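JOB MANIFEST
job_type = single_chain_structure
chain_count = 1
residues = 92
[input]
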Amino acid sequence: MWVLSNRKYKSCLHRVSVNSLSPRLSLVFFLCPNGDRELKAPQELVEKDGKKEYPDFTWGEFLQFTQKNHRADENTLQLFTKWLLTSKNRNA
């Protein structure tokens, strides 16, 4: 959400707390774009804010990072951005 809104809106981190007193009921909803789908803030927001907060990336790049390198938490986007920029510089 931060990437798509150029840091205007922050997604909440999902965590679950279970107990032995009552059963847990869960509803699952996943939305994953195609791996080649580019994620970026709209140009209008970037122009309004005066700078782009995050580099453009594909869903596949983000998925690769979270599956192979890092469990999702509050630092995921910051660490992903660093990893992404480092890996793109190596491939340039």
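[summary]
Residues 34 and 55 are 18 Å apart (CA to CA).
Helices lie at 43-49, 59-68, 76-91.
exit_status = 0
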